[in-house]
Amino acid sequence: MTKMNGRNHNVTLAVAFVIGCLIMLLFLLNKTHETLEDSRSALSTLEDKYASLVKQFESLYEYKERLEHSFMSFKEKKSAVLSEADTVKSELAVLKSSHKNEIQRLHDELDACRRREEMAVIHRSQKDDALLSPSSLVAQLPSMPISPVEDVHSNSAKEASGIKVISSLKNIHQNQSDSNKGVPQPSMDPNVDLAGNVMV
Which domain holds residue 160? Predict the structure, then answer.
């Protein structure tokens, strides 16, 4: 009887131990399963984040490529604009120098024309004064040859003709003087133009 009780007690302990081990195994399996599920969920989240990062990296790489292309295009355009600007500057400098020389040449020609015109006006005025001066005509009359065989009537006719010529020249000179009233006469000074302005 005592032996039977001892065997039953050992069996009970063995069964209790086995049951305890099974419970521990079930608990460990449950924890392992939960940990595995958490790991799978974390892995899925990490995969999503990785895919998002890959897309962002691709977008950044494409943006970088576009920026590099835009920068190269801008650099080429800038070089072309600078080259064109240098060309335009050189052309403007040449045109400016050419226009300056042309203006100086025209000024010189204008000054030369003014001087020639002033000299021509002065010479013409002096010539007209000399031709229309009665004193010069009177001074030329005694030098006219007179034949001693001419009679008194012919001398009188010549004197009358000379007086008529002198009178006609006086009238012409008077008419020219009247027509030139109010008109500025050319100056004899070569440094003064027709309008009376002093040239430097």
Answer: 133-144+153-200
**What six digits make up the tokens of 110?**
């204008």
Residue 175 domain flag: yes
State pLDDT tens for residues 4-33.
566 777 788 888 888 989 999 999 999 999
Tally of domains within the chain:
1
Q: DSSP string covering 69-137, please?
A: HHHHHHHHHHHHHHHHHHHHHHHHHHHHHHHHHHHHHHHHHHHHHHHHHHHHHHHHHHHHHHHH-HHHH
Residue 106 falls inside a structural domain: no
Please count the other Cβ atoms lying within 10 Å of the Cβ belonging to residue 118. Answer: 20
CA–CA separation, 197 vs 41, rounded Å?
Answer: 106
